[in-house]
Amino acid sequence: MRDRVWILLGLGAFLLLVTSPLWWNVRARAGLKGPDLVLPADQKDCVMPAREMNSSHMQLLLQWRDEVVRREIHSFKAYDGKIHDMRLSGTCLSCHEKAKFCDRCHDYVGVKTPYCWDCHIDPAQTRPALARRSSQ
Amino acid sequence: MKISRKQFLKLTGASLLAVSAGKVWSALAYAGQAVTHPVQVIRGKQWAMLIDTRKCAEHPECTRCIEACDKAHNIPSFKNPAHEVKWIWTEPFENVFPSESTRFMPAGLKEEPVMVLCNHCDNPPCVRVCPTGATWKREEDGIVMMDWHRCIGCRYCMAGCPYGSRSFNWEDPRGSLGELNPGFPTRTKGVVEKCTFCPERLAKGQLPACVEACSAGAVLFGDLNDAASEIRTQLESRRTIRRRPELGTGPNVYYVI
Amino acid sequence: MFMLEKAVVGGQRYWSWIGTLIGVIAVGFFFYLRQFNYGLGITGLSRNVTWGLYIGQFTFLVGVAASAVMVVLPYYLHNHKEFGRMTILGECLAVSAVTTCILFILVDLGQPMRALNIIIYARPNSMMFWDMVSLGGYWVLNAVITLVSLHAVQEGVAPPAWIKPVILLSIPWAISIHTVTAFLYSGLPGRPFWLTAILAPRFLASAFASGPALLILLCMLIRRLGGYDVGRKAINDVAIIVTYAMTVNVFFLLMELFTSFYSQIPTLMEHFENMYVGVGGNYSLVPWGQSSVVMMAGALVLLLIPQTRRNERTLVVACILTFISLWADKGICLVVGGFIPSPLGAMTGYVPTLPELCIGAGVWAIGALMVTVFYKVALSTAVAAHADFTHDPATVKEAA
């Protein structure tokens, strides 16, 4: 039983490690305050109700992707009857600002977006003002 | 319930077999369609192009079609020429039409630049060899399309294309782009790309970028399955040729030489 | 069940070898991370030469994997008892070779994270799909056979009866893996160098020469190092198989050369010209092409003369020449040569870069590590059980 000390120490270290997400965040004072999302100023309705978008926007995007790329269907009828073009940069990002909406929630939750942005362009990145600023 | 390791492994193997059996069944159903009818039945349109090299040759310095395509599709221009990506470009006449090139030809014809691009073949070998279906021939309009979400970058299609129409992203194209067109995505490293006859423009009733950009009227675009289309009329009234027709690929880019 | 405990017991020589291999693998892995980050542009490949070292090595190693059949077939179908001590070594080599094949394909992919798309979106019209099926199946077959055989010897019993049909299945399966690999190339209308019906037979002939040649070398090595002797008759018989296969391979090559050069069709001739003499200022393949032919001739001479084939020293030279010449021919000239000239007539050269070579070496080292570990386990098992792998109940003895 001379190993008792080491066993207890090891157990203690393990417990510390395994509960680290909890006490680390307490220590960092990460509060209950959620992400600071900037909603679109002029549009009130998305292509799906906000609750559904919150939980299933990835499934919707994948469905859009397959419909446009593989089934040559371009139009989507939203729940309110409005017709939208099924485009990530063209439709979604025409209302939402990626940096102030999408990224903020994703960063808060810690969910890395899949490889979408390797190819799809954030229109905000191509605006001349931004381009000028980034080239300084 | 006590289960031995052997029994567990047997169970796992049997379950995996059962799951994959379903996949194999549906895959084979697809295969039956693709393998026994290698010549695709086009149900709708068949987009095709007619390039008049004589009209094009009147403007030897013109690259408007190439620039329009590059701009519309965010085509990168890499520093390393081995990594170049091109959807539409020019090649010397003797490389494009080796069977039409003879020992004695009109001056300058041998090196004359001829526009080349993906031929959107009727019987495309690239589609036949793609292991994931990342490239396929659309039934609606005959375009040989690319799905950059699915491409695994094996480059089998590049080996299969008899025309050298395809390019691969050997590095991240984002660093080698000019002005971005936000209306069309870029691609990422590790996928193959080629001309797709601008389906994003066709969906809006516009002509492909290169066709619209040509100021010499050298590029005609239309539906071969529409007997009244201008391209059909032209093809039926003039002598035209295609690249390497003897291979049975059925290319849909015609040339007046 | 995996008996790996036998692989961690060894002398200094053993551990230095393992250490070297792990070092090579680590370097390869480091460069692979760089390739994963930067893209395949870190290699010497280009728009015109889109397959090079990786796919060439894959093609060659599929042949090595298939070659186990040259030992398995005579033993199981024709009761050639002399191969009894060799079959397990062939099977271990096959598993290791197939693993490296799969790894070479993975390192060649532009989007390796999507590799499973081949299964999810299976396209049976693609020969690559069937290649995956046949390679995967062959891996499973050989893994099962190897494990069951080792286990049986360790327990001191005959292997279970159901392994026999599995082994018999591996025989046509071995032929199929290399045929399907040849089909990757020989069905492409735009590549006249590969568009020949003799490509698959040529692949098989060179596989059945290079693989058993490697097996002979490995058997001699472990006789020297591990005291496990497969027997002179076995080595001689395999040498005869290598001789026949090499003869057929050279014959097929000459057939190709005849058709191309007697017909005088430029599209057929130019690929061979590029490989052996260089065309259009492009000489990148010539050293490989010429040395391959010279070594093939040398190997053939040594193999055909009975005295040099039976003399173990000259046999070693012959086997080395066989292996290297066919490696240069299939692993480099064949794959790269098909791309030069390009469909539009461009003579783009190809020289692998340092990262590419290191990654290739790393994958080879993984194969070598697998072979080493397998052989260590197999031989230790055999020695400990005072048995061999003849699968013959009469020779199975009680474990000590």
Describe the structure.
The complex is a heterotrimer of chains A (136), B (257) and C (400). The radius of gyration of chain A is 22 Å and the shape is elongated. Chain A has one domain (34-135). The longest helix of chain A has 22 residues, at 50-71. Chain A has helices at 4-18, 20-27, 50-71, 88-95, 98-109, 116-119, 123-126, 128-135; strands at 75-77, 83-85. Chain A is mainly alpha-helical and 136 residues long. Chain B is α+β, with helices and mostly antiparallel strands and 257 residues long. In chain B, strands 8-1-9 form a three-stranded mixed sheet. Chain B has a two-stranded antiparallel ribbon with strand order 2-3. In chain B, a hairpin with a 6-residue loop joins strand 4 (135-137) and strand 5 (144-146). In chain B, 43% of the residues are buried. In chain C, helix 1 runs antiparallel to helix 14 (354-384) and helix 11 (286-304) packs antiparallel against helix 13 (312-337). Chain C is globular, with a radius of gyration of 21 Å. Chain C is mainly α. Chain C contains 14 helices and no strands. Residues 393-400 of chain C have low confidence and may be disordered. The two termini of chain C are 19 Å apart. In chain C, 70% of the residues lie in helices and 0% in strands. Chains in contact: A-B, B-C. Chains B and C meet through helix 1, helix 4, helix 5, helix 6 and strand 6 of B and helix 5 and helix 6 of C.
Overview features:
heterotrimer, A: 136 residues, mainly alpha, two-stranded antiparallel sheet, 4% strand, C: 400 residues, Formate dehydrogenase/DMSO reductase fold, 0% strand, globular, disordered C terminus
What is this structure's SSE topology?
The complex is a heterotrimer of chains A (136), B (257) and C (400).
Chain A: H1 4-18, H2 20-27, H3 50-71, E1 75-77, E2 83-85, H4 88-95, H5 98-109, H6 116-119, H7 123-126, H8 128-135
Antiparallel strand pairs in A: 1-2
Chain B: H1 5-36, E1 47-52, H2 53-57, H3 64-72, E2 88-92, H4 93-96, E3 113-117, H5 125-129, E4 135-137, E5 144-146, H6 156-160, E6 167-168, E7 192-193, H7 199-202, H8 209-213, E8 219-223, H9 230-237, E9 253-256
Parallel strand pairs in B: 1-9
Antiparallel strand pairs in B: 1-8, 2-3, 4-5, 6-7
Chain C: H1 12-38, H2 53-66, H3 69-78, H4 87-108, H5 117-120, H6 127-155, H7 163-186, H8 199-226, H9 232-263, H10 266-276, H11 286-304, H12 306-310, H13 312-337, H14 354-384
Helix pairs in contact in C: 1-14, 2-4, 2-7, 2-8, 2-13, 3-7, 4-6, 4-14, 6-7, 7-8, 8-9, 8-13, 9-10, 9-11, 11-13
